[in-house]
């Protein structure tokens, strides 16, 4: 048995040191002496918790109860406790200052845990008073040093500065000889998210026991995280697989869903149980996932099915106000976009490649408007990524997440590695200025664009030579209305052959020609040298300048073609971009 006093004096020493190595040494010494049935509890307490991080038990006490209990034990009123807390900044110090009662029998760690769990779990009529009474009794029976840490534990503000990896280091040092052995424990922690369980298993069964810890339904797996890059061209280099998947990046809440028959549990990014907040997602998982048991990773988003657009993250977060969940769930239905499969029918999928996981996901989850696998493309080049990315932005998404398709593209629980790379709108350096360009041609529309144009050929004005020189073909950014209206709008400018003052290279020649008349505002990603376009044509190098990934912004009917962006301006933008 370990007394709570032993723990409290170790906490005091932990607080006094600023050296991480010393912290590990102190913890290792403490843990080495704790019996198997208490070692898990000690780990939770060191982290300021009562149970594993995902367990609701940690939310059952809180500041209000702690303040009322200290008041009761001190024979004063809660307002004086609050005032002292404002002055001292800490309920632990308040308890030490205000409570004069002599300590009772020594408290064991197991006793303290039992009482705190009872308090946290109390519910129903009169439970608030019962919680305060029980906690006051516990704090009153403690020594001043124990009171400090009991009060902090209850108030949820332990703040020893010890993280979960520090505890794993200490466990490795205590039972495996060196903290260098931490990686042997980390995997078990990453897939169980329960440090107490790992500690107990290590203490009782040694490393073989820890290695046997496997994915368990209703215990969250620590989520795999994404890296970021400075340039879109770095993505393929970094991921290091010739072909990658580019998935839509949703701006909602990360949700890991555990399906166990009809029993569904949902965990947030921080691994708290959020099942109660998403009754609709629970229903969709139950109805549409065809496997008996499964663990899915994905994002809950607010999708407006009427307008076909994603609504902002804040909309979804309004559901957090729990008491209104069912009401708000009707008003803001959540859609679950699933991007990974971690477990299915008894088998862990963590060590299967991403393509295998995705293929199996598609087998057990069809497409429904409320739940479906994330949309994506598979590509091997940067332009493919950029194109899909721009299409995502147009749909109101935040960006894309690129994922390795290599053989070893396993699900790395809890890790932030180069297998997943995010690319978001806030880091795309679009040209700071738009260009006003003249429409001089168009290609015929096919498929969905039959009856209108597929893209329009745009030119800048070369003032010195009084010529129009092409810069880009543009097919994106148009609304459906703009698009279907294109033939009507451009009809008056249509001519049979290439207009006089227009310079076009044969490979860029369009299906239809237009006299320079209509001016459009265009946003683009960057200006590059190109053999296709004639803007600032250099006859020796046979290259002009082109605008990459152009997008329609609006019509500039008030501008004449000669008032369009000039070739010289395009050249200046190109130079500026190089300097940056
Ligand atoms: N297709 C997807 N694949 C992976 N994650 C996605 C996807 N779509 C949306 N996400 C979300 O994007 C998050 C990562 O990027 P983001 O920059 O939004 O989050 P963050 O909180 O700043 O970073 P992080 O979660 O990586 O610490 C993921 O945690 C996940 O919730």
From TrEMBL:
Q: Which cofactor does it need?
A: Mg(2+)
Active-site residues from the entry: 249
Q: Which reaction does it catalyse?
A: ATP + (deoxyribonucleotide)n-3'-hydroxyl + 5'-phospho-(deoxyribonucleotide)m = (deoxyribonucleotide)n+m + AMP + diphosphate
Q: Which PANTHER family match?
A: DNA LIGASE 1, DNA LIGASE 1/3 FAMILY MEMBER
What's the stated role of this polypeptide?
Answer: DNA ligase that seals nicks in double-stranded DNA during DNA replication, DNA recombination and DNA repair.
Family stated for the protein in its record:
Belongs to the ATP-dependent DNA ligase family.
Write the protein's name. DNA ligase
């Amino acid at each position: 048995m370990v007394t709570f006093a032993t723990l409290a004096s170790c906490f005091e020493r932990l607080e006094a040191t600023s050296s991480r190595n010393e912290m590990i040494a102190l913890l290792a010494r403490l843990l080495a002496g704790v019996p198997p049935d208490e070692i898990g509890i000690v780990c939770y307490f060191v982290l300021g918790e009562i149970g594993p991080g995902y367990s609701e038990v940690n939310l059952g006490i809180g500041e209000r109860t702690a303040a009322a209990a200290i008041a009761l034990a001190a024979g004063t009123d809660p307002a004086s406790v609050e005032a002292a807390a404002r002055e001292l900044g800490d309920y632990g110090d308040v308890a030490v200052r205000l409570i004069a009662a002599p300590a009772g029998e020594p408290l064991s760690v197991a006793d303290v845990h039992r009482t705190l769990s009872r308090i946290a779990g109390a519910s129903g009529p009169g439970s608030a008073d019962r919680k305060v009474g029980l906690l006051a009794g516990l704090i009153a029976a403690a020594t001043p040093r124990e009171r400090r840490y009991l009060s902090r534990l209850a108030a949820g503000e332990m703040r020893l500065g010890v993280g979960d990896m520090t505890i794993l280091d200490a466990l490795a040092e205590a039972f495996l000889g060196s903290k260098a052995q931490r990686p042997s424990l980390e995997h078990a922690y990453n897939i169980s998210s329960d440090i107490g369980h790992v500690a107990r298993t290590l203490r009782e069964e040694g490393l073989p026991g820890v290695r046997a810890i496997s994915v368990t339904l209703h215990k969250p797996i620590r989520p795999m995280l994404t890296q970021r890059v400075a340039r879109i061209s770095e993505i393929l280099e970094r991921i290091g697989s010739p072909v990658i998947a580019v998935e839509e990046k949703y701006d909602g809440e990360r949700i890991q869903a555990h399906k166990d028959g009809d029993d569904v549990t949902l965990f947030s990014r921080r691994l708290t149980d959020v099942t109660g907040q998403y009754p609709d997602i629970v229903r969709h998982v139950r109805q549409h996932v065809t496997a008996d048991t499964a663990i899915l990773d994905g994002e809950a988003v607010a999708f407006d099915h009427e307008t076909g657009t994603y609504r902002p993250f804040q909309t979804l977060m309004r559901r957090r106000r729990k008491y209104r969940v069912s009401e708000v769930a009707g008003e803001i239905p959540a859609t679950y976009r699933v991007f990974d499969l971690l477990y299915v029918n008894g088998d862990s999928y963590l060590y299967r490649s991403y393509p295998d996981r995705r293929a199996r996901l598609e087998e057990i989850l069809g497409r429904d408007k409320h739940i479906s696998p994330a949309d994506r493309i598979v590509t091997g080049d940067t332009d493919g990524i950029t194109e899909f990315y721009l299409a995502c932005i147009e749909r109101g998404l935040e960006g894309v997440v690129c994922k390795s398709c290599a053989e070893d593209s396993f699900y790395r629980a809890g890790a932030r590695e180069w297998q997943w790379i995010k690319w978001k709108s806030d880091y795309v350096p679009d040209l700071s200025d738009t260009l006003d360009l003249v429409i001089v041609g168009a290609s015929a529309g096919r498929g969905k664009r039959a009856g209108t144009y597929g893209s329009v050929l745009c030119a800048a004005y070369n003032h010195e030579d009084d010529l129009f020189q092409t810069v880009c073909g543009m097919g994106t950014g148009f609304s459906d209305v703009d698009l279907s209206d294109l033939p009507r709008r451009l009809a008056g400018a249509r001519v049979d052959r290439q207009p006089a003052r227009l310079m076009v290279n044969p490979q860029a020649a369009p299906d239809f020609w237009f006299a320079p008349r209509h001016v459009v505002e265009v946003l683009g990603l960057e200006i590059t040298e190109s053999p296709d376009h004639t803007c600032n044509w250099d006859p020796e190098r046979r290259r002009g300048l082109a605008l990459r990934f152009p997008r329609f912004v609006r019509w500039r009917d008030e501008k004449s073609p000669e008032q369009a962006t000039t070739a010289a301006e395009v050249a200046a933008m190109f130079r500026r971009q190089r300097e940056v």
